[in-house]
Amino acid sequence: MTYYIVYGLVKFLSLFPFAVLYALSDVLYPVIYYIIGYRKQVVRDNLSYSFPEKTEQERKAIEKKFYRHFCDLIFENIKFAGISVSEINKRMLYNNFEPALKHLDEGRSVMLYSSHYGNWEWNSSFILHLPKDMPIYPIYKKQTSEVSDRIIHKIRNHFGTETIEMKNLLRVMAAMRSEGRFGMFGMISDQSPTRESLHYFTQFLNQHTAVITGTEQIARKFDYPVYYARLKKLKRGYYTSELIPVSLHPKETPEFEISEKYMRLLEEDILRDPAIWLWTHKRWKYTREKTVE
What we know:
The structure is a single chain. The chain is an alpha/beta fold. The protein has one domain (2-291). Helix content is 45%, strand content 17%. The longest helix has 25 residues, at 56-80. A seven-stranded mixed sheet has the order 1-9-8-2-5-3-4.
């Protein structure tokens, strides 16, 4: 019952135009930032360690800009539950995706690196530019809240994508390959890995950082080409996504080179426009020193 009530509210709000939703975002911002202070200390710590060269005033400006973007994301993704094809095609523009499509024609699936940057949820609208028999599969980790999990799943599949839970990914990919079916697999890889998956560390945003290597490992196993979805925010509610090749032949690529290149591309994006990365997550849980016992 809770799911139907909450999702009904989401669908109702999605009927409103962007002007109304952004007005609601403007109202939400002081509540989230000044009154609730949602994860404000985490954000401040992350910004302080990532940008030690900046003044406190400069970091505070990024912080406030981030929270405004964060509130916009909430309503942009509510809108995504009911947005039309014509509207999303005006607001989410894709560049340089043709080379990736050629791999599908050649009988190879494609791995897409993504991040919690810009509006990553809108990136699933890329399916509108793919052949109908070669869809995009966003990979996700099941939420602890069943209601939240069902709602996120429903919104992400608005244009017909087929989300796959991470624990089922290898089995699904192997089955698809044996059946001669191919597609694009979207992997968000900028989180902190689990303790059991600490295979590689790099210097990222001035910090010793543990890197998720699952995307690389899967790409090397199946020898599927890897691309990075570079998101840019043009203005409020308008984004571009460009596919940057990371490795076209992963089996021939040295170990961890793919993961390293992904981290460098992500770092470039964050340095260019830091306010649109999701700073509320605790990404630096582990260092090499903390995990060596």
